[in-house]
Amino acid sequence: MDAAYDVIIIGGGPIGIACALTAQRAGLSYLVIEKGCLTNSLYNYPLYMTFFSTSERLEIGNIPFVCINPKPNRPEALEYYRRVTTSNQLNVKLFEEVTGIIPNGTEYMVHTPKGKYHGRHVVIATGFYDIPNKLNVPGEDLPKVTHYYKDPHFYATRKVIVIGANNSAVDAALETYRKGAQVTMIIREDGIGKRVKYWVKPDIENRIAEGSIKAYYHSGLAAVRENEADILTPDGIVTIPNDFVIAMTGYQPNFDFLQKAGIALSDDAKKYPAYNPLTMETNMPRIYLAGVVCGGMDTHVWFIENSREHADKIIQHIRSRA
Q1: Which InterPro entries match (predicted)?
Q2: In this structure, are strands 228-233 and 236-241 parallel, antiparallel, or unpaired?
Q3: What is the model's pTM?
């Protein structure tokens, strides 16, 4: 641990793995540190999730992602990124959370509960899936309320509220409905989101139109209690019986972690981190950003398919300095 790595990569998701592959091929010493399992965010996606993109757009390091279906699902993606990591013998430490990035002369000291690692450069590729956007309503802390959705079987025969109108919310509403749940959607806007997968959007709209799924538009959750919930609608408060609330309100990067590392954020609500889009280097010398963490609160700007190039930009800039 005393020897300094050329680059320490924080985050073992697809983009962190892409940075590791690129560093390895460039002959740089590197280490990936991931606080959970490999591709932890993907692992925590819903069991039956299907990606919007085709498999070739999810490939990293020019390693083919072979998929029978037009669009891969969660198990196929987990298998692909795991095989990429193991077959290339990438240097990855799992279940080890980074607690600090401390400048140390021309290097950085990366702290975890298990050790301290020296790195000449640091790449932060931590994504945004760890911190949900809270509703800040009474009862949100009840066990019946969750900001993560995994398996529809859990909600069979229950009265379920789903908050949101984009892909995660629509998937949760349709899947729980088909497992026998009585589903009510609370939607802030006047309809289903425009970014919803094109093969799913007609399905949810038809289920709402026929009354199989109840939807309140221009509405929000006002309060949650053990056996019921209040919905603020244009016509006033509506109280309905309720067993579970699935709040698909989105997520945000760990801004505290970025700021403690010295990375500046914009003063507006977007909280854009400061970085050079040509090199991905932040205002902190030799600290880089990669992947969706670059978007601040705009979590729908960066995806695997359009941030894979961050790895090439970062490693090219590191090599040019060497």
Answers
A1: Bdr (IPR023856), FAD/NAD-bd_sf (IPR036188), Ferredoxin-NADP_redctase_2 (IPR050097)
A2: antiparallel
A3: 0.90
